[in-house]
Amino acid sequence: MGCAGFSCSKHSLCALNILYVMVSLLMIGIAAWGKWFGLVSSFQVVGGVIGVGVFLFFVALAGLIGAMKHHQVLLFFYMIILFMVFIVQFSVSSACLAINREQQNQLLEVGWNNSQTTQKDVEKSLNCCGFKQVEVNGTCDAACFPNHSCSPCADKIQEHAGEILRFVGGIGLFFSFTEILGVWLTYRYRNQKDPRANPSAFL
């Protein structure tokens, strides 16, 4: 029957959700690994990544079960949730790619001022102190601070921020298109008849 058939739609949807399950487990594992080895000390960051991973895992699990059993209700809710995720992810990814340098600086400064743990992580990893200026009488976890040879973190962060935003935006756009593919596959699969089922049972 080719890719227009029931079996092809089912297998495609199952494969897509298995991919989502693997991505969600990878997100949870990386966040937990980073926290365990002290690479990230901010509980909010780790908790946020793990929360997104758990949410994606359950959505993918619902889609996988719905695809395997051709469960109309599960597939319907899966399609609605996936479409909402697509809208949010597409918007955020587009914003990441469209943001200019001045807006990056404003967002980075807001993020810097909102979290002490993030400041410590950045100062330690980039070997810098302060955001726009080094406070000699303040505290800093960077290795350069005792020697008074530190530079502000804003310039170092900005070097990586553009590349990271483009990378995140590109990855986000890629996955947003797989999500709209999942919505289309689910819609088509819900309205297809299982050739092995009782013909009178299909509505």
Helix-residue proportion: over 70%
Q: What integer value in Å does the Rg equal?
A: 23 Å
- Profile the largest sheet: none
What's the end-to-end separation, in Å? 22 Å
Number of domains: 1
Number of extended strands: 0
Contiguous low-pLDDT stretches (5 residues minimum) are none
Q: How many H/I helices?
A: 6
Description:
The chain has one domain. The protein is built from 6 helices and no strands. The mean pLDDT is 80. It has 203 residues and is mainly α. Helix 2 packs across helix 3, helix 3 runs antiparallel to helix 6 and helix 4 crosses helix 6. It is found in: Membrane. It is a multi-pass membrane protein.
Write a short abstract of this structure:
By secondary structure, the chain is mainly α.
Question: Which descriptors apply to this entry?
Answer:
transmembrane; mainly alpha; 203 residues; transmembrane helix; single chain
Outline the secondary-structure elements.
Elements: H1 6-36, H2 43-69, H3 72-98, H4 101-114, H5 116-126, H6 153-190
Helix pairs in contact: 1-2, 1-6, 2-3, 3-6, 4-6
Keywords: Membrane, Transmembrane, Transmembrane helix
Transmembrane segments: 12-33, 45-66, 73-92, 164-187
Membrane topology: Multi-pass membrane protein
